[in-house]
């Protein structure tokens, strides 16, 4: 049959059928469903992701006013157009059914769940009135601001609020990798440092889940791809040292399983090989370090240097037993590390979350000094500040001055480097030491979930007369608040987003509303200013801005006036900016601030390249102006002296510290106490039959740590063990076989503190004496997506801490496991 | 001459297309002499470099492709027409590689060509970053530490140098040295310190060392904006330089013509030369009753940008030499009065400016390459100032509109 005839036949048949149909049914006007269809009005708005500290640039696709997709911003120097699964899931945070609809007040006692909506005017009046009343009786110091975001203008605003109100209790609780105490003790730096991964030839990572968790996973993965494929010349080698086969370990050239808490010993044994075999950068060590050799102080006292300590105590033969790493491997890794410079040793929570965390961090960082990597290409950068226009000076009245001069809540003087740590405040708040807290503000902080001592902290919350949470969700801490002033989600608000330090470049992303707020929420910056105005007097005067956006515009003016860096731009232009900056030049690009601001919003942010190395005055802010193996800053703290350089982190005060308790292994005059060394991590009391150590890790999809875990992420929470929407316990397959535990069996994990039930997952990336349980699940909050999904392993871990930094040290809890 | 039908048609189509392009290219303007070449905007030129895919093969400052040479090096010390000549001479090789790699041959408007050439010239205005290690040696060899303190050590005669740690451009240091030069010289004399000459990359190295060793780093970083030759030209008069120095014969005759200095010197090297000649100049100025000029802000960068561009400016071409080249290089075979293959250049709309001509030449290079290959003619290459002379000659061929209509 010819095609034409076939069409005729089919057309005729169809017409016949249609006529038949008309004859037998009532005729209804047929409407073409597509007749009213129209293409939606599409718009792409650049903004910045706030799902994790990485600060990737995003572009939101808006159709008819609704955000329907998030993509990466190709101009953003951190992610270059990529966006991870967590960033993609931002849509489900915006449209989350459990978002709080407006301000609420708890009418019953804390945790009762009896909430009542109130207007913003009432809410601000209630909070502001209380704060005003406290100032009237000189109790302003008992207000506490708990900032879990910890960077940018929001943190600056919180600090200003604390200063003008009159409280020393601004606490920045942004997540860290546990290396900060080492950067302070050995380099005198209060800010985090960046790594020049792109130029490194050898990366030795001690428990730093670089590709999965560290600061900006998208950046790290992009750079890792560059190191392995695109980079001309030799490719870099990555060696991952940690008890569990993390995402990074699985992508590394080599995974070295090590006993939990023993990474510091391994680093020191590597140092032993470098020194013993003369493989260290001798010129660098002699020019830029202090305390390598034995030395004599001004009083004529002889002090032990790093070299003597290492050669005396850290022979690989001795360390192999501590770490579980064979001697041959230690020697081989040490030689590779020394011979493939630039080499980088990096640390992370997998190594530092133990009671010996500070010394472990110092040991790891000492390796960088031994290979001359600090302040050199392929090594470490000290991070520069953003050139924001400073706020106009605030007038602090007598109440504020008196309040700020009070001691801080929870500054436990037994921890010499507490300003670099993030101490658990449960004890201080509960025991009201040195005074009770009367008002507590929580900003992106959910301490009732993340603390090792939830019972204590819950009781402490009950004692605080007014707890205010800014959370957009009813997380565990918000449930125990009195008032919730819900913030917009990041897709609905203005915010500066300084990207977490990565490559030494400084990157300022701009978050702008891509959609009008869905609910009756309020920008926390605006809420804080309104509270300030409600308090009145000098507090009111300290907030002259109309809203947070006005403050942002004013601050960014400083960036424009700094005549540095560039609005995000395509790669060739960015390379020009970088190359010119290296040579000392900068090309003006915008004729006015308005022009700059508009371009900033259009491109997504501003950036300044890392342009130079070897700026020693900035790299080493120690008393010696050098890298200090022998930390004089720590020694000063131990001896109760206030150091003359190296001020603490913003908002923190450095006090004279008492010597460490004798049980720490030495008094203030012990040289070893200020040198990187290994101490066995403290472990809680083992219950009978406890033969495993419980190792907690955060799955990659929970990198931001938010409580609102959306379905897209729940679906991919543990792909390597085929788990979703639930927790699991990873067991070494041989161990599982011995214990007759099969894949998917329900088992109990029990410590001296309690137990939980999870499914067993034999996983080859587990050491025989360790079990791994993910952290981040097991929320107890209203709603369907996160409530009671999985377990929170912190609930059975002992509340240990690092005595030097005061950091919580959940790392070594003995447990037993048995079938449920 | 016999051409196969298909090829002849292709050639005709190519020529017609090219002619159309040339005639449509620009409004009829007065023929521009080489003296009047307006330097294109280098900032636009770098966009052209990227947009046209030059970076697929070529690198600039080590970034981008490695197949072709580093264009920053190629452009070092070259005038605009020398660069254009190089560009033309290498075009067959470039076209072949592009064809092999499937890269489309880009075409340029005169503005784009002008910007691109200006960008390549401008790359060598900037020095390579200095070396702190070398700077440290220079610092002590030159005796800077005898008077100045840096970090926590050094002399106390001069001001401490830590404050310069936020300075990013060596020209800022050079400017400060110039401004304090007289005072420094007399202090050096009274302290028996030999006045050091600063050469090559030493100024950049010194700054790198100052940044490296400074004890109290300021958080700010102070960059300089690349100088603007036009502003520099005005400063050259305003600051009185013109009273002694000339540029291409225009100006004072007491001191050397500054356009005749080494063409491969960077901005910092020129600044260093100023420092080195300081005492001589000051002495002369004193005798002539001229005050030593002080520079502030971006002024020294502007002034040096003017000197830099003057040294790379083309001198007027030689029409007679150009005419000879037109014959000896074989242009005449296709474009001459007897030639029938190429268009009659005297009627070309590209005879507006050297850059119009340069762009038109590049744009028809691929067509011409095929014809040249078929004809067995060697690709004409232009070295030295040959392109300048040729262009001067070709521009002189332009007929007035009245002549063109005849």
How would you characterize the overall build of this protein?
By secondary structure, chain A is an alpha/beta fold. Among the domains of chain A are: 193-380, Dimethylsulfoxide Reductase, domain 2, CATH 3.40.228; 692-819, Barwin-like endoglucanases. Chain A is built from 29 helices and 30 strands. In chain A, strand 13 (295-296) and strand 14 (302-303) form a beta hairpin. The longest helix of chain A has 22 residues, at 3-24. Chain A starts with a helix and ends with a strand. The relative contact order of chain A is 0.15. Chain B is an all-alpha fold and 406 residues long. Chain B folds into two domains: 5-126 and 315-405, no CATH class; 128-225 and 240-294, no CATH class. In chain B, strand 5 (246-247) and strand 6 (250-251) form a beta hairpin. Chain B is elongated, with a radius of gyration of 26 Å. Chain B starts with a helix and ends with a helix. Chains A and B meet through helix 24 and helix 26 of A and helix 2, strand 2, helix 9 and helix 11 of B.
Question: How is the secondary structure organized here?
Answer:
The complex is a heterodimer of chains A (about 800) and B (about 400).
Chain A: H1 3-24, E1 42-48, E2 57-63, E3 66-72, H2 85-88, H3 90-94, E4 104-106, E5 115-117, H4 120-136, E6 143-147, H5 152-165, E7 170-172, H6 180-187, E8 193-195, E9 202-206, H7 217-230, E10 237-241, H8 247-251, E11 254-256, H9 263-276, H10 282-288, E12 289-290, E13 295-296, E14 302-303, H11 306-313, H12 316-323, H13 327-339, E15 343-347, H14 349-352, H15 357-370, E16 380-382, H16 398-404, H17 426-431, E17 439-443, H18 447-450, H19 454-463, E18 466-469, H20 476-479, E19 483-484, E20 495-498, E21 506-511, H21 524-535, H22 537-541, H23 548-561, E22 566-567, H24 571-583, H25 593-603, E23 605-608, H26 616-619, E24 627-628, H27 632-638, E25 692-697, H28 711-714, E26 728-731, H29 733-738, E27 746-750, E28 755-762, E29 770-774, E30 813-819
Parallel strand pairs in A: 6-7, 6-17, 9-10, 9-15, 10-11, 12-24, 17-18, 18-19, 25-29, 26-28
Antiparallel strand pairs in A: 1-2, 2-3, 4-5, 4-19, 8-16, 13-14, 20-21, 21-23, 22-23, 25-30, 27-28, 27-30
Chain B: H1 5-25, H2 42-51, E1 59-60, E2 63-64, H3 71-74, H4 80-89, H5 91-101, H6 110-122, H7 132-141, H8 144-147, E3 149-150, E4 153-154, H9 170-179, H10 181-190, H11 202-213, H12 229-238, E5 246-247, E6 250-251, H13 267-276, H14 278-288, H15 299-311, H16 319-328, H17 331-335, H18 354-363, H19 365-375, H20 386-396, H21 401-405
Antiparallel strand pairs in B: 1-2, 3-4, 5-6
Helix pairs in contact in B: 2-6, 4-18, 6-18, 7-11, 9-11, 9-13, 12-15, 16-20
